[in-house]
Amino acid sequence: MHILVTGSNGYIGQRLIPVLLEQQYRLTCCVRSRQRFEAGYNGGEIQVLEVDFSGDISPLKFPADIDVAFYLVHSMREGADFEAAEQRAAKAFLELVEGTQCKQVIYLSGIVNADQLSKHLSSRFAVENILRSGRIPVTVLRAGIIVGSGSSSFEIIRDLVEKLPVMITPKWLRTKCQPLAIRNAIAFLTGVIMDSESFNKDYDIGGPEILTYKQMLEQFAEVRGLKRHIFTLPVMTPRLSSYWLYFVTSTSYPLAVNLVNSMKVDVTCRPNNLAERLGIALLSYKQAVEMAFQKIEQNEVISSWKDAFSAFNTSPVIINNIEVPVFGCFKDTRHREISGDPDQVLGKIWRIGGEQGWYYGNSLWKLRGFIDKAFGGVGLRRGRTSALQIERGDALDFWRVIIADKINRRLLLYAEMKLPGEAWLEFQIMEKEKRYYLFQTATFRPKGLLGRLYWYSVLPFHYFIFNGMIRELVKQEPEEA
Question: Is residue 305's pLDDT more than 70?
């Protein structure tokens, strides 16, 4: 059976694809950036199709022999044309899939049972209706909070619980939801494949418990063995709530606005027998959190919402810019000879950022992250998806990974912080006359006079930070006995 998966680089797509391959399906994976797609899935046949559903689709065609198509395209951005953009993408997808022999479209939507919906949920419902307007039977699975390592809800709650012993919170913490474990979500998605009973139907999918967001915070704290005191403040406005979420967690401000608007709406499920019919044992919220931490502790986090380009309004086009510009740029270039094992230095480079930090001047890096947050940037709170691995396209603190090439010993990062220009940071180990050297280069392309003033203002800090960082990177660590 041939299955098409849109949103293949997204959080759900990256969890779904390995399961589909295990079930011996042939896949066509739609991505906006082929360079970002991780082609290292074990076994199975995968065809990659680069497509931007919000752009010009006239030259494109889906393979004619598609049997089932998953529509997993979601935008987490907020803007004047937010709903219109999602509807254009759905119409483009429908036009392409109608030209195939597809027998079923499966769409992961949001729970839309409340009388008044947020803009985010209204958009999901509008997309449902667009997909239903075609000739192909549609199965809609409506989920609320999805809990798993790397999911937005999990990481945001983790930020709140692990950083704040006492929380003064907005009144929407009393809103009810029905959190669903990511494992159960994937089971629902794969379970309805070519299930004729689910054709042209919609199902609310959630876990076995109805909880308030406050109860979710409290249960998360119990799993982590933490004691937390939570107080709700009824006078906190939506704007203040968004700022609160933005500064305390790793969300971008546009995403924080979206989340706050959605969190004011109850997202509980209408009863149905789908889980029973598909033989899915629903996990409790605590079980889902415990399983997520097992993955984190084993460095087995497959995907993270923080890696999504749309979550931070970053164009995926930058992933193709593998050559750092030369003209009109300021550079800070340093190199050091590696006296010991170059692979040990490479391992340190591959662990940079996140919990590990930047090896030197971490307090200054944190200050820079705080300043970035204050000006509406991403800050340092995104961390990294895996403590040991780096993949092209990953978010790494306030950087985006452009190149992660272990064979050629090169790591290239692009800055997503708020800057009056564009910035890159590159590490490369090179061999010259049978000696190994680490080259560390910071490149800045300024925009106008403000960009030039910025560069000269931070030069003193660069001297200490970059000099200390390369020194610590080449320092050989004592081997364990």
Answer: no
